Amino acid sequence: MPKEKVIKTESDYTAKSIQVLEGLEPVRKRPGMYIGGTSTEGLHHLIWEVVNNSVDEAMAGYCKNIEVKLLPKNIIEISDDGRGIPVEKHPQTKKSTLETVLTVLHAGGKFGGNGYKISGGLHGVGVSVVNALSVWLKAEVKRDGKIYAMEFERGKSKSKEPKVVGKAKNTGTKIVFEADPQIFPEIKYNWEKILAYLRQQSYLTKGLSVKIYDEREDDSKKAYGFLFDGGLVSYIKFLNRGKEVKNEMPFYVEKSVDDTLVEIAMQYTDGYKEHVFSFANNIFTPEGGMHEVGFRSALTRAINSYAKKTGILKEKDDNFTSEDFQEGLTAVISVKLKNPQFEGQTKAKLGNNEVRGIVSNVTSEALAEYLEAHPNNAKEMISKVLLTAKARIAARAAKDAVIRKGALEGMTLPGKLADCSVRDASQSELYIVEGDSAGGSAKQGRDRRFQAILPLRGKLVNVEKTTLDKVVKSDTLKPIIIALGAGIGDSLDISKTRYHKIIIMADADVDGSHIRTLLLTFFYRYFEPLIRAGYIYIAQPPLYRIQKGKEVQYAYTEEQKNIAVNEILKRSADKKEKTEKISKPEIVMETDSDENDSEVGEKVSGINIQRYKGLGEMNPTQLWETTMDPETRMMLKVNIEDAEAADKMFDVLMGSEVEPRRRFIQTHAKSVKNLDV
Questions:
Q1: Which end of the chain has the smaller Cβ count within 10 Å, N or C?
Q2: 157 plus 259 within the same structural domain
Q3: 267 burial class (0-12, 13-18, 19+ CB within 10 angstroms)?
Q4: Are residues 285 and 207 in the same domain?
Q5: Inside any domain, residue 3
Q6: Residue tagged active-site, from 161, 270, 509, 657
Q7: DSSP one-letter string for 366-412
């Protein structure tokens, strides 16, 4: 690949650097084609596109600071200290380059001009799409000692050219916009989501300062910032916080080959799940690609070679397989290249074939040196791989035994499973129910045509400390594996899943929460494709039954209960022609009696309020009406972020590190409202 001259002066970044490919008209008609949809993901994508422009400036060596502000009335402000978008007239469009970049699709410095040597390859699209999908957008550019401003409405400029509004001592770009409610049904920005994205971008760009301010509400203003000189090593340590690590010193390499920069960090933990994140030009590639293939092949080759050389593996021993390197592996693979070729509309996979060899060679050479230079770390890593290899052999035998005896071969399903009559998986639901009494009510209350019930019996194993062979032998988890019918581990075939709705139904208390977390972690560790396919749900049983005369309501939260009670009281007051404002009612508590300890509740002016201790307290009809009837039930679909959060929480609460658990307990102890001892 021929060398390209690196741009080092502001004057080289001019109108000629911007190449125009096509117009902007389709964006408002088909926003999903450009931002993936108009849900919360698409809404946040607007922020990502503007931020990524600034990150491209940072990767090019011109930007050191980015600020993101969440302002009142759903206004977003993003600024940087990069070179500033050029403002002079563009030779193709005959309009200001600033207007061209913001109103013409595919106009940017990343499409064959000399604006950027490395970029995400899509961000020239992004800022114009943000403009098209906003009620209004204002751009301010600091450049050539002046501040230029230009305003737009739904993608159209309000003036013929940028106006000079002040003097500037430095350079940079500020974009302020309001997302269009005609496009987005709900405009609600998630602080944690934005924080996570900006943290990730900071880790991937060493030395870049990113600050975020939440100024939406006066009483809860927040500010946060990121600056990681450690780059990917800092990222690895963040991902592995609270876990017991094997190689205390993470493996790290950063090397340029031709026009491709390879940066990789890796560390092993004592966990059983792998966490591998790959990026191309700072764009997350969740489906991997050639950079990830190159890394994995080099990891297998280098450690096998070292293990044979040092005698850990004898010459007669079989080599470790690629599967043996997965458990406990945390790795971040970042490549930066001139012309990234992404596969699919969502750019989830990197397709550049030449990258595989470059990453493989860089990793092999650096990892061989690392293993030689750090023999103690190498020993710990290989001991983990060796343990995984032994477990793999044992697990395969145990798993094969489960499958041979299970539903995949047409044999008997678990005896405790009350199956449904429908055989169409897309119409079938499996309720995994905590406790025998709840299981009994669920079996009686269900619709037998499409709802299957599997009661949980026995103690759930701690999947954080359990290998696959023990999982498939577990009295509690083994029936779930067989009932699902899709296999497990490397034999998992999602197309054979017998139910497309797998619903975790547990009590709304501490024990129920623990069981949900255990099951979520189980599915995340061993059935991640089911989560990604949207098959895993959490049932939402009500907390309260509210009755006044013949009127019965159910409340799923404390707030819903208070609203329902006050509405009933208001109706009663209206009937009595009372006009005074009704204050919060005084609650009279009934104590538990020895004769009937399930009737725990409150009485408010003739309103009976029953607090459900568990699912088992509901009769079959109540359970059907509140939790299982598709017409009235509330369910949460589990996404991969939910499962990762459960996995991380499980690491904190059940892992071997004491300090994170102690901090969690100290932080949350005061928030425990009801504790059964």
A1: C
A2: no
A3: buried
A4: no
A5: no
A6: 509
A7: HHHHHHHH-HHHHHHHHHHHHHHHHHHHHHHHHHHHHHHHSGGGT-P
For the stretch 619-625, contacts whose Cβ atoms lie closer than 8 Å and that sit 24 or more positions apart, written own/partner, are 619/441, 619/445, 620/441, 620/442, 620/444, 620/445, 621/445, 622/445, 622/545, 623/438, 623/441, 623/442, 623/445, 623/541, 624/445, 624/446, 624/447, 625/554
Q: Which of the residues 140, 214, 507, 617 is marked catalytic?
A: 507
Q: For residues 658 and 675, what is the distance between their CA atoms, to the nearest angstrom?
A: 22
Asked which of 348, 377, 392 is the last residue of a domain, the reply is 392
162: in domain: yes
The pTM for the full model equals: 0.69
Q: What is the pLDDT of residues 174-225, one digit of tens each?
A: 999 999 999 999 999 999 999 999 999 999 999 999 999 999 987 678 899 9
| Catalytic member of 56, 57, 81, 434 | 434
CATH number at residue 202: 3.30.565.10
State whether 257 and 388 are in the same domain.
yes
- So what's the pLDDT on residue 655? 58
Query: Is 30 domain-assigned?
Result: yes
Q: Is 409 a catalytic residue?
A: no
Domain that holds residue 642: 423-541+636-653
Q: Which of 258, 436, 511, 641 is catalytic?
A: 511
- In this predicted structure, what is the pLDDT of residue 470? 78
Q: What confidence score (pLDDT) does residue 407 get? A: 36
CA nearest neighbour of 262 among 334, 366, 365, 354? 334
Residue 628: Cβ within 10 Å count: 24
Q: Establish whether 507 is a catalytic residue.
A: yes
Segment 525-574, tens digit of pLDDT: 889 899 989 999 999 888 888 888 888 888 888 888 888 888 888 887 76
629 a catalytic residue? no
| Residue 112 pLDDT | 44
Terminal-to-terminal C-alpha distance of the chain: 69
The list of the chain residues with pLDDT below 50 reads 1-8, 21, 110-113, 121-124, 404-411, 578-600, 668-677
